[in-house]
């Protein structure tokens, strides 16, 4: 397993469903810039977090465009976005229930997206950079870290 990828419960040492979220669902206004962007353009916030959650297998643009399509054509984009909340919970052992994920996204999708985005940021990701630049940044930080030295005689 690569250390830069998110890990699920037993691998990370956290039982699935027991880890608390780094911020509350209604802590939306703690970051006004993210709050405004998400309330007026949720497709951007969703696209960014989907790329990180999918570990780069989908792009921000693709996920954001699919979000807009579903919102305009059906109005049920929240069904799509709630699946990513479930993926995040599985990857990080976060608390919550699948039914709760759908209810949260149905009734307060911007709050849910902001909470998910902030969770990724709390875990060391910068969703604005996308998956690949985050991995490059982590690799550079690991290469720059000093080697562990042992005391010898």
Automatic annotation (TrEMBL):
<dbReference type="InterPro" id="IPR006461">
    <property type="entry name" value="PLAC_motif_containing"/>
</dbReference>
<keyword id="KW-1133">Transmembrane helix</keyword>
<dbReference type="Pfam" id="PF04749">
    <property type="entry name" value="PLAC8"/>
</dbReference>
<keyword id="KW-0472">Membrane</keyword>
<feature type="transmembrane region" description="Helical">
    <location>
        <begin position="64"/>
        <end position="82"/>
    </location>
</feature>
<keyword id="KW-0812">Transmembrane</keyword>
<protein>
    <submittedName>
        <fullName>Uncharacterized protein</fullName>
    </submittedName>
</protein>
């Amino acid at each position: 397993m690569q250390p830069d990828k998110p890990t699920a419960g037993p691998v990370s040492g956290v039982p699935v469903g027991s880890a608390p979220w780094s911020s509350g669902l209604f802590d939306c206004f703690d970051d006004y810039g993210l709050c405004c962007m998400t309330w007026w353009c949720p497709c951007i916030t969703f696209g960014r977090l989907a790329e990180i959650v999918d570990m780069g297998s989908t792009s921000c643009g693709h996920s954001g465009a699919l979000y807009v399509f579903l919102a305009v054509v059906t109005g049920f984009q929240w069904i799509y976005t709630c699946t990513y909340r479930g993926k995040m919970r599985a990857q990080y052992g976060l608390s919550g229930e699948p039914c709760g994920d759908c209810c949260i996204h149905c009734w307060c999708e911007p709050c849910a997206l902001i909470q998910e985005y902030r969770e990724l940021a709390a875990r060391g990701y910068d969703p604005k950079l996308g998956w690949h630049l985050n991995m490059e940044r982590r690799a550079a930080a690991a290469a720059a870290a000093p080697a562990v030295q042992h005391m010898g005689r």
